[in-house]
Amino acid sequence: MNERPSLARAAPVSFTLNGIAQTVASTPGERLSDVVRRGLGLTGTKVGCNAGDCGACTVLMDGAQVCACMVAAQQAHGRSIVSIEGLAQFPMGRALQSAFHRHDAAQCGICTPGMLMAAADVLARYASPDRKTIMDALGGVLCRCTGYLKIVDAVLDAAKAGPEVLQEPGPAPSLEPGTSVGHRILRIDAAPRLTGAAVFGDDCAPADALWLRAVRSPHAHARFSIGDLAPFAARNPGIARIFTARDVPGENSFGIYPDLKDQPVFAEGFVRYRGEPILALVGTREAVEAVQAVDLPVTWEPLAALHGIRAALAEGAPAIHANKPGNILTSGIVECGDPARARTKAAHTAEGTFETSFVEHAYIEPEAGFARRVGNRMEIHACTQAPMMDRDEVSRVLGLAREDVRIAPTACGGGFGGKLDVAVQPMLAVAAWHLDRPVRCVFERIESMASTTKRHPASIRARASCDAAGRLVSYEFDGDFNTGAYASWGPTVAGRVPVHASGPYRVPHVKNDARAIYTNDTPAGAFRGFGVPQAAIAHEALFDDLAEKTGLDRLEFRHLNALRAGDTTPTGQVLEASAGLVACLDALRPSWQALLAETAAFNASAGTRRRGVGIGCMWYGIGNTGLSNPSTMRLTLARDGTLTFWNGAVDIGQGSTTVLTQIAADALGLPVSAFRLVVGDTDLTFDAGKTSASRQTFVSGKAAQLAGEALRAKILRLTNAGPDARIVLDGARLSVSDGGQQTLVELVHLPDQGDGIALEGIGTFDPPTKPLDAKGQGIPYATYGFAAQIASVDVDLGLGTVKVRRIVAAHDVGRAINPTLVEGQIHGGIAQGLGLALMEEFIPGRTENLHDYLIPTCGDMPDIDIILIEDREPLGPFGAKGIGEPALIPTAPAILGAIRNATGVTIRKVPALPHRVHAALVEAGRAVDF
Ligand code: FES
Ligand code: FES
Predict the structure, then answer these.
(1) Residue 479: which of 589, 576, 355 has the closest Cα?
(2) 414 lines ligand 2 (CB under 6 A)
(3) What beta strand segments (E) does 133-219 contain?
(4) Atom of ligand 2 nearest to the CA of 106
(5) What is the pLDDT of residue 5?
(6) Which ligand is nearest to the CA of 52?
(7) 68 alpha carbon to ligand 1 midpoint, in Å?
(8) Which of 137, 129, 46 is nearest to 858 (CA)?
(9) Nearest CA-CA partner of 108 in 529, 358, 419, 394
């Protein structure tokens, strides 16, 4: 019998797991997922919610898919269980893994085990399932990264190809040197995600680790005091220690900006939002989970809370932070020309107000990890998007030098900006430091949603004007963004929004103002776009208005005004190159015209459904706004022939490990398969900056290119070869051919540069920018991504429901280093944009789980066509820019424009939930009885 903790009322349960007989002791109600993961050590089965909502824990029980978190282990008695670790025992299981790899159906990989098990279920029931059958079968498993389409394609392909067409998950194909950029090579680190071997934040703690559970405020605004904890501890021997603010050895604060460390690790007598941690219980899992918060000696004095922007800005509103009277965290501006004057001379003006909601990242992997003290150093293994920033935060909290903290990122089960802020890290560090024992933590789903950052709700007033021919003359934008109780990335949003607020258009007169406002709501932070998606909803709605007023087709209005290379932006920056919006619009025109015609035909017949087509355009500055933004990459060739890529860029599913290796490989002139990879460990890699702002392909990619070129130059110098020489690495021997001449280098004969390294190439790239001045003039970004998407929707005039039928997306990515991965980003971005437009609204205290907070499922996805425009960026690696954020930004404007086209109604508060659409239809007299 496997060893299990001694449990009251435990009874033996016997079942087969992946064909092997198991007997475990299990208490009534103990989840099968827990028994499989913790009792039997098979961590391939993931837990995203423990509530039956996400499907990450899907296994097969007697051949049928079940959520293992919703099955009591004792129900498994006498049954056959198959988890992801056993999938490859079945020929169709291997076929599915292979097809998922071929189609790049696993990005971050946290949903992949559940998705594969659900797929195995449907393929066991149907020999040739159609798309709808597959979508129904996968409908219970959520994916936040892929947009599902490649997953469905993979299952269809596996069913069609059958078990004979196998391509085992494994290393990348050995492409010819210099030919990987631009190719659809398979993701090089996919195998562990497909087999359940990938180690995420909750998968790696040592067996003797204690468990940490944070106790959080039930109030949005309150004073509190903690009484004598000793009697409580004495009554709970499983609790090793309780940590409060007093136990923080260094600074009890963290935050993104050096001058804005305003968020405490543990609140000190005062909380500013519901979910703020006040103490941490550390002990056995059973002990910390058994504690009821009311049993703790904590006295609360609730205070009136400021919810929402209006309350925080109201006359006489108390300051949430004493140093910010008026609750304005910060503001940003971009101003050029004289928009007020230009407006008075304009032929047409459109204006409006727009509101957006808190949006939850809803990554399927909650925050998790463990910490351990190693002598006088601290080591953290956790999911993160920003290991170097985590290192700096933890070192402050512990009062250690940066070098004395090591962040070893685990696989990251989705981030989208939400894992740029520390979460478990500071608390774990404090506990492990004092206890000198490993300490682990995984946030519950509700805890994760209640306590971590969100997309900023925005309250926008905007006005746009154009001349009689439709040429834009002015744009005025005033946007307040609810940054919640703490600053987090609020300044970034306030700085980035004014640059982008008038959209990717030539506008000579602009005044764009944005403010980040403190409230007693959940902190808002980084989320795919940093405020730009909210601003795009406003500018695209106003430009639809202006197109109508001028009598221009909506696409042609945008084409007329689109920024082109050589144009000057509102910050005074001249776009030197790679401004591909016109090319995107040209590429979309045939689909646009076809959809308009199809829509007219559909709407000609009577019915309660109306069809509409909308268009959204965007631009997005790649990297930080007017700030230094460097990345450094390193390649080494050891005397034993090992070629290692030391890459500090964390791959959170977007595929940077593959893309950067492709770039490095072509720059060096060796195949992708030649590389050993070391990714993200702060002890082992240089600082590549954070994985955010669509910057890794552009910034770290350029650094990888420079590193490859530097190593290549050393090899060529060593062999006196010319720039076109061909390099071959064969074991510990380099062969360099130039013209008809071949030179061999026995690496073992080269001097040891340290750690067995014979040759090294290092590349650093910091995109050239110029800080914005007081009027927002400067060069905020070295390059921009451009895109346009069109959406076709059906609106039910009786119910207010909206179904997105089709999206056609044209994206200027500079150069698609790996088109398959670019497509995956666009699919995923569209899914999140659809959620932003139609369904996602986080309400603190109400939608803090994946049952009440809805994200798109498989069945919500439209057909998607992608057109890649490659307007090369001269600064980028092989011409590449970035795609992470651009993928999402145009989607909501396109959908909202399509709703307006279908109904004549502009939705001014998103998400466009059915009751909001219906209310707008009623107000406009467009609703029909159903
Ligand atoms: S963990 Fe079981 S459904 Fe989410
Ligand atoms: S790949 Fe599905 S959640 Fe990340």
Answers:
(1) 355
(2) yes
(3) 210-216
(4) 1
(5) 45
(6) 1
(7) 7
(8) 137
(9) 419
Is any atom of ligand 1 closer than 6 Å to the C-beta of 47? yes
Residue 440, phi then psi, degrees to nearest 5: -120, 160
Which ligand sits closest to the CA of 110? 2
Which atom from ligand 2 is nearest to the alpha carbon of 365?
3
Cα-only R_g, the chain = 28
Q: State the average pLDDT over residues 273-286.
A: 97
Alpha-carbon span 498 to 494, nearest angstrom: 7
Kindly give the distance from the C-alpha atom of residue 142 to the centroid of ligand 1, in angstroms, as a whole number: 10
Which two structure tokens, joined as six digits, stand for 798? 């009786």
Which of 237-251, 268-282, 680-694 shows the lowest per-residue confidence on average (mean pLDDT)? 680-694
Q: How far is the C-alpha of 25 from the C-alpha of 200, rounded, in Å?
A: 26
Using the Cα atoms of residue 580, residue 586, residue 587 and residue 592 in order, give the sign of their dihedral.
positive
CA neighbours closer than 13 Å in the CB half-sphere of residue 566: 0
Cβ–ligand 1 distance for 50 under 6 Å, the answer yes
Of 533, 506, 584, 140, whose CA–CA distance to 354 is shortest?
Answer: 533
Cα atoms in the Cβ-side hemisphere of radius 13 Å centred on 150 = 28
Mutate to test the pocket of ligand 2, among 103, 107, 151, 361 (most ligand atoms within 8 A of CB): 107
Give distance in angstroms: CA of 413 to centre of ligand 2.
Answer: 7
What would the pLDDT profile of 424-460 be if each residue is shown by its tens digit?
999 999 999 999 999 999 999 999 999 999 999 999 9
Angle between the N-to-C axes of helices 554-561 and 581-604, in degrees from 0 to 180, rounded to the nearest 10:
170
Task: Count Cβ neighbours within 10 Å for each residue of 792-813 and write b for 16 or more, e otherwise.
Answer: bbbbbbebbbbebbbbbbbbbb
Ligand 2 atom 2, closest CA? 143
- What does the pLDDT read at residue 572? 98
Distance (Å) from CA 97 to ligand 1 centroid: 21
CA gap 264, 811 in Å, rounded:
41
DSSP structural state of residue 74: G
The pLDDT score that the predictor gives to residue 164 is 60
Length reported for the chain: 930
At 16, phi and psi to the nearest 5?
-100, 140
pLDDT tens by residue, 911-921: 999 999 999 99
Closest residue by Cα to atom 3, ligand 1, is 52
Minimum-distance ligand 1 atom for the alpha carbon of 68: 2
With a 6 A CB cut-off, is 48 part of the ligand 1 pocket?
A: yes
Query: Other CB atoms closer than 10 Å to residue 197's CB: what's the count?
Result: 16
For the cut 60, the answer to whether the pLDDT of residue 1 exceeds it is: no
- C-alpha separations of 831 from 315, 325, 826, 840, 862 in Å: 40, 39, 9, 11, 9
Regarding the beta carbon of 57 and ligand 1, being less than 6 Å apart is answered: yes
Task: Give percent above pLDDT 70 in the chain.
Answer: 98
User: Could you count the other beta carbons within 10 Å of the beta carbon of residue 291?
Assistant: 18
Antiparallel, parallel or unpaired: β 439-442 and 210-216: parallel
Question: Which of 57, 66, 112, 363 best tests ligand 1's pocket when mutated (most atoms within 8 Å of CB)?
Answer: 57
67 lines ligand 1 (CB under 6 A): yes
107 CB near ligand 2 (under 6 Å):
yes
Token digits of residue 411 = 């696989």
Question: In this predicted structure, what is the pLDDT of residue 150?
Answer: 98
C-alpha 657, offset from chain centre: 15
Instruction: Report helix, strand or coil for 82.
Output: strand
Q: pTM (2 decimals)? A: 0.96
Structure tokens at 98: 């292979």
Q: pLDDT value at position 2?
A: 37
**Ligand 2 probe mutation, 146, 155, 825, most atoms within 8 A of CB:** 146
As a whole number, mean pLDDT of residues 873-898 equals 97
**Run of H or E residues at 324:** none
Q: Which segments of 470-580 does DSSP mark as H helices, in order? A: 490-500, 532-550, 554-561
Alpha-carbon span 102 to 38, nearest angstrom? 32
Task: Give 840's DSSP letter.
Answer: -
Task: Tell me what pLDDT residue 167 has.
Answer: 54
| Residue 173 in this model has a pLDDT that exceeds 80 | no
